[in-house]
Amino acid sequence: MSIFTGWRAALRIARRDAMRAKGRSALVVAMIAVPVLGVTALDVTYRSMTPTTTETLTSEIGSADALFRDQKMGPIEQLPDASTYTNLDGVLPAGNGDPVDIRTTFPKGSRAVSIQSVPASVTTGYGVTNTDIVEIRTSDRMLRGKIDLMRGAYPHDKGEMAATEPFLKATGLHLGSTTTVRNSGQQYTITGVVELPSELKTKALYADPGAVIAPWKDRADHDKKVLPPNAGSTDWLVKGPAGVGVTWPHIMEANKKGVLVTSRQVVLDPPPDSEVPLAARHPGITDNGSEELSTALITVIAMAVLEIVLLAGPAFAVGARRSRRQLGLLGTCGGDRRHVRAVVLGGGLVLGGIGAVTGVVVGLGLTAALQPVIENWAGHRFGSLSMPPLELLLIAVIGLITGLLAAFAPAIVASRQSVLESLTGRRGVRRSSRVLPLLGACVLAFGAAIALYGGTSGNSTLVAGGSMVAELGLLACIPVIVGFLGRLGRRLPLSPRMAMRDAARNRGRTAPAVAAVMAAVAGSVAIATYMSSYSAEVEYKYVPSLTKGTIAVVSSGEAVERLPLARAAVERNMAVSGGHADFRRVWAGSDCNVYEENHCGSLELVKPTGKARSCPLTRKGAKELAARLSADEHRKLMRSPACLVDQMSWSLFNTDESNIVVADADLLDTYVKLDDPAAAKALAAGTPVLLNPVYAENGEVTVKAVHQYSEKDTKNWKLHPGEARTITDKLKVYVAPAKYAATPGIRMILPERTAERLGLHTRAAGSVYTVAHAPTNAEDQRVSGAIEQSGGGIWVQFDHGPSQRQDTMLLILTLFASTVTLGAAAITTGLAKADAEADLNTLSAVGATPGVRRKLSGFQCVVVALTGVVLGTLAGLVPAVALRLIDLRDALKLMRLDPTQSAYTPIVLPWATIGVLVVCIPLLAGVLAAAFTRSRLALARRAG
């Protein structure tokens, strides 16, 4: 009999066995399909989200041939893809340069559409908001792919506009609504909803050229109270002559007038470097480098391959044990160990092939079903649902091969069983290896060390390889860990005690199931830990503009008299908690907000001299110091009062660089959050409160005031004519604790009577409120509308918090890792339950009630799932920590180049995710196992 004939018989037996035990076969197929599904979905998503050059061009220029933009820098030279350009003679023109009529640079016979945007204040369904209005003929076919109509109709009249969906949701408007551009007074009807496929979160309005900017300019020319529009430069989308397009010679001619051109045909088919002057003078400038996968992605892919093996292994082990009688019959018919191995491996080939194909197909379907969700996360549409056939085939082959590898160990075990043991169903008693756990512990430590070394050295290969080795080492330790479970259950109730002892007694069944859950959880924990750590880093680096939980109502100029109306609007429409604290602006001489800089006064807090009062990271020797600092030491130093001086240069309180605010004790409680009766008493007595102790010396602060008055400031010029006067005063101050030096926008609070005594000018500037939550779009627009109706000139300022923009691929990885984790946990515990069916039959035979059997089955799965989750959490921390060490290495390198750059790279455990995994997955597994355990079992025929 040839080898092919033998394998054909083995495959036929494996196929029939799979058809006979459909439930078990389905679980095995699912165990292989789940990780293949995750890898397939990840691959298709990554490819679909990564735009091709053609798709990038379409999002930028639509269906036009080219985009022409005036750079206002004189003659230029550019690369064919317009990514790099430079001034031709190296001398930039003064100002913005002379404007160029871009239309004179178009190829003859071209057709063009102009693009120009302007920021404007418009009415909404709630009140008033600020947005960008883009003048572009959206109905032109040249815009397809750049701007697409979702519903309604394109604007065709001067009184019509189109809006994006995010703008409508934020403003409470809809199709058919009207909005008024407040600056021009023109009213427009929203006729269509459009989207930018490459920027789905854009909030903007679109009108035809001449519909907004021209009437606004006209009104500003006739009404000096109306500010003219601050319109941007005009760009042009160009459709070149038929059959010609926009060629490289056309681009070079346009460059001579300072126009940058992005041409579709030139980008897709660039000229040789010898014909590109900029490339000829700078060899290598066109090399963009090879595209590399991120370290995090490489590590996750490596762990995914290992996960497939670990998930499929227990599936085939259970299958082999459930088929041991059939395998024993094969031996009685003359089959030897080779034939037994062939049958088990044949099952791996059959079920592995079905699982691989199923995983690929379901992965494609899942990605297609979740496409809108993924696109919203990413903020742009897929160019197309990319399904690279070679990559999908490779994924299926990897799933098939790893399925065979996973069946190899069960095949060896099954072939070594005696025929008698196989026919009687006895598993025999085997002592656990004492060497394997010790070897596993060494491998675990070795793998963790490799991964951490890879993190410190920036080697992604070592991170991925070390993480896999560490997980394999932990895998070898599982039998010993499971063995301890029996001892832990001595004082537990009957069902959980039996479940713990059963897990310890049947380690050959429990350990593979625990390993499978561990493999699935490890990937989720690794990704979640990395993302939570990254979010903490972003939050730390963020510099707030206001104290958390507060808003500021700020006025300008003569709008001060309308502050009571603004306060009433805020208190009526926002989640204000408590009263408000008023503050005043303070200045010396003529107000620099009104008069020219050289004809107005100044106010300054004089910082005493000495090294202790200057930031070590900004003075001489800073780079040498940074080279010696750890990330935590650098973080502590950057938060010191001396270094915070340089970080506070702008304030929402309308102060100058002194950051001095005139207020009373209410501001301490509402904004500074300084609960100290001594500070409040000091303000009441006319003593300033200093928040940054660097400016204090012996309990005093030096205030330098330059009283310079402008002749245009007629009222004060009469009182203080002549040269500027510089007055320096020393004031006794209350010095707040050092932590209050980080208070956004304020260095010192000055009592009003003290300011008057120093000859300074003050004026009411606004109020601060404590709010329960940040204002919503509707609340903000209602308040803005009420303020505009009263005359305007007042703004409600609030801190938006750190940007939560995260790597989209990490978000996608989190989604699919969670799916795989839940699926794998449920299927693995199902397999463990199926393998324990004989124990349930024994319980039934000795008179156990159905409730006891259900509880035992449920607790058996809880033990498997909980142990796997805990071990998976530990295994997932290794790659997460290693990846953060790579980030730390890069941050330290940047810090040593620029000592003021933060190198803070925290490692933050995602306790919420870990809690969900530890609680929900075991609970779900236990409930499902208990629910699907049959109340009454059919009497089983005695084996043998």
What do these coordinates show?
This protein is an alpha+beta fold and 944 residues long. Helices cover 51% and strands 14% of the residues. Strands 1, 4, 5, 6, 7, 8, 9, 10, 11 and 12 form a ten-stranded mixed beta sheet that branches. The protein has an eight-stranded mixed beta sheet with strand order 20-17-21-16-14-22-13-23. It is globular, with a radius of gyration of 36 Å.
Radius of gyration: 36 Å
Mean pLDDT: 81
Silhouette: globular
Poorly predicted residue ranges = 288-293
Helix content: 40-55%
| Distance, first to last CA | 31 Å
User: What structural category do the secondary elements indicate?
Assistant: alpha+beta
Q: How many H/I helical runs?
A: 31
List keywords for this structure.
51% helix, 14% strand, alpha+beta, 10-stranded mixed β-sheet, 8-stranded mixed β-sheet, 23 strands, 944 residues, globular
Summarize the structure.
This protein has 944 residues and is of the alpha+beta class. Helices cover 51% and strands 14% of the residues.
